[in-house]
Structure formats: C-alpha cells, structure tokens
Amino acid sequence: MYIAMNRFKVALGSEAAFEEVWATRDTHLKQVPGFIEFHLLKGPQREDHVLYASHTIWASHAHFEDWTRSDAFRAAHRNAGNAGGANRPVYLSHPEFEGFEVVQTVK
C-alpha cells in the first residue's frame, strides 16, 4: 500500500471555504484503479493558519502515480486553490506533498 498526503496551511477564517470546496468537489477517485480510501484531516490551529491534510490510500505507489497522470486527476484538480475567490487567499503557501510506502498495518 501507498499513502499520499498533502499538507495545507489554511489562513484563519478560511476554514469553512476550504472544507466546502472539498465537500462539494467531484473527486473522480471511486473509479480510479488502485484507490482505496480518502480522508480530509483537520489539525491544530496555529497563530496564522489551521493545518489540514488530504490523505489517500492506494493499493501501490504505481497506482498513485497512474492517478497523477490521468485525466481524472486533472479534472479533480482543475479549480484547486480557488476556494477563497480572487480577493481572499485560502492557503498561506503551496501544499506540501508527502508520500509513504506502508511497511506495517495493524487492524
């Protein structure tokens, strides 16, 4: 298995707009080969932002890479970063990607 995460520093006051974008978007994930599960995680509040992470689980790293090169990926990310509108920034910086090969699972 492979876990892909993006960490987002969401500007204070933009949390609802950020969550709404994720809740209403067409992810295109359910029909993608190798996709297992998605989570949107809300983390701690800091002085100027709230930390969020998107967390997807894939059958393999190759399945994730295939997704990133697909038309479904481009469609799902077409409006990324537009949650706040032109006059209101949502992110303090670009998302930070982290990818992990799963070496142990306990159920």
Automatic annotation (TrEMBL):
Residues 2-97 form the ABM domain. Coiled coil: none annotated. InterPro entries: ABM_dom, Dimeric_a/b-barrel, Heme-degrading_MO. The keyword Oxidoreductase applies. Its EC number is 1.14.14.18. SUPFAM superfamilies: Dimeric alpha+beta barrel. Keywords: Oxidoreductase. GO terms for molecular function: heme oxygenase (decyclizing) activity. It comes from the Bacteria. Transmembrane segments: none annotated. This is Heme oxygenase (Staphylobilin-producing). It comes from Paraburkholderia hiiakae. The gene is isdG.
